[in-house]
Amino acid sequence: xxxxxxxxxxxxxxxxxxxxxxxxxxxxxxxxxxxxxxxxxxxxxxxxxxxxxxxxxxxxxxxxxxxxxxxxxxxxxxxxxxxxxxxxxxxxxxxxxxxxxxxxxxxxxxxxxxxxxxxxxxxxxxxxxxxxxxxxxxxxxxxxxxxxxxxxxxxxxxxxxxxxxxxxxxxxxxxxxxxxxxxxxxxxxxxxxxxxxxxxxxxxxxxxxxxxxxxxxxxxxxxxxxxxxxxxxxxxxxxxxxxxxxxxxxxxxxxxxxxxxxxxxxxxxxxxxxxxxxxxxxxxxxxxxxxxxxxxxxxxxxxxxxxxxxxxxxxxxxxxxxxxxxxxxxxxxxxxxxxxxxxxxxxxxxxxxxxxxxxxxxxxxxxxxxxxxxxxxxxxxxxxxxxxxxxxxxxxxxxxxxxxxxxxxxxxxxxxxxxxxxxxxxxxxxxxxx
Amino acid sequence: xxxxxxxxxxxxxxxxxxxxxxxxxxxxxxxxxxxxxxxxxxxxxxxxxxxxxxxxxxxxxxxxxxxxxxxxxxxxxxxxxxxxxxxxxxxxxxxxxxxxxxxxxxxxxxxxxxxxxxxxxxxxxxxxxxxxxxxxxxxxxxxxxxxxxxxxxx
Lengths: 434, 154
What we know:
The complex is a heterodimer of chains A (434) and B (154).
Chain A: H1 23-28, H2 33-41, H3 44-54, H4 66-71, E1 84-89, H5 98-105, H6 107-121, E2 125-130, H7 135-150, E3 166-171, H8 181-188, E4 212-216, H9 217-229, H10 231-235, E5 245-252, E6 258-263, H11 268-275, E7 285-289, E8 298-299, H12 309-312, E9 323-328, H13 333-347, H14 353-370, H15 378-389, H16 397-411, H17 413-422
Parallel strand pairs in A: 1-2, 1-4, 2-3, 5-9
Antiparallel strand pairs in A: 5-6, 7-8, 7-9
Chain B: H1 4-14, H2 24-35, H3 40-50, H4 54-63, E1 75-80, H5 83-87, H6 90-101, E2 107-108, E3 114-119, E4 131-133, E5 136-138, H7 143-151
Parallel strand pairs in B: 1-3
Antiparallel strand pairs in B: 1-4, 2-3, 4-5
Helix pairs in contact in B: 1-2, 2-3, 3-4
């Protein structure tokens, strides 16, 4: 079971309490009261306005404004058929493990968020797509959905309102690309998870050809809190552009790896050195990946940055999923590049040539440098491959494969050059590869 | 052959979706749980049930890491070796497990008891290194602890 966060806030305050995972325990904390009120007396338009006013950014990696996404859905005048909400619980960004906590420890908070979002976009059904490896989360959610149906939280008269809703739990099958929203829609339709060309966007033509909104787990878990306490309350947390708390996951060479619920804009060095206790074993910091494996690395000298996109952007990286991977001074960055490029090579869906071939090229070049067989022209070749992948494919996967390699070459060219010059790794104490 | 019990579960899965094919991924899970793999014969049967070409089922089996076309042993053990786990010794653990079991990655012990594999990030980065045994995570492991987990498997 996922460890409870070291610092908690409104999202995770009750995650250490086993009863909170049950319907009765959740209700005892005031759970479902917000959704009950809104479903009986509110309107979808007001709900969308509240979410827009709150400025909540999606927590799935792309930071798209959630209320805006909802507003793309057709309004009440469109009565051509069903529309759907999809909850993206296919968390698989390396370094990211926050949704797992919410799935395992706050299933009813998620279901309340789902009910509110579904009401806002007038969806009759939610497909909750959970990554197949999350066995415990699937067990917990299966039970929570059964409880919610039996307790008339879900069903033809959800929470005693005139709004009908049901949740269908769907188990993924081990493909990172299904976390991309249109790859996920394809997977739900029983197909390979190969992302779609856009437009049309999901709000127009989503799953099973119907208007669909895809929201991340943590995004939906924010909704009941924002609706209950108001957009102004939410705007009072975090930065002007990036409001609210988020769940940062800290892993790698730190004293206290774990989850930390903190406001967006909390400085990265504060998270690493104060909250997570600094670098383990008394070593020095070498580098930090701030937002999951897809985001560009920052060297130790650049970690004095607030964790919000408007600040990270200036350092050519981004918040991503808030997965912070810390590396000490024993770490060989060529080995890091081997792991990153191996991952993207394995997970490319194979549909676009630039990505399918480019990820393989990057992995082969980096691997030969690591083996001591690199050539001096390899660094320029790597940059060239990255440039030919970035922005040239159907989805953002190729960008996500190019960015971290560009980041490593930008900040640690000496690690690569040293391997080529000396034919061996200059870091005898570095972590080992398979 | 997909027997009556599995067929009933597949029909129930199909009923959860507005379009029949939506149940196909779930049907693959059901077949693999029931038969230990999704064989070529099973893919052809599923194709008939879902009114699609056999190749459309076979390519799903090969696209999704979860599914395999031949049995992999009673217990499937996967070591996460992505960056957060690798930084905390996952590959040292993996090599130790290879020695302990006497098999390499992607292989199954001669008695068919344990299949050893490696996987990409499993979302347990703060509890590295870790292994997944079927649907159960074992976290914060050292080699002795991981060996004890494997030895306790039937």
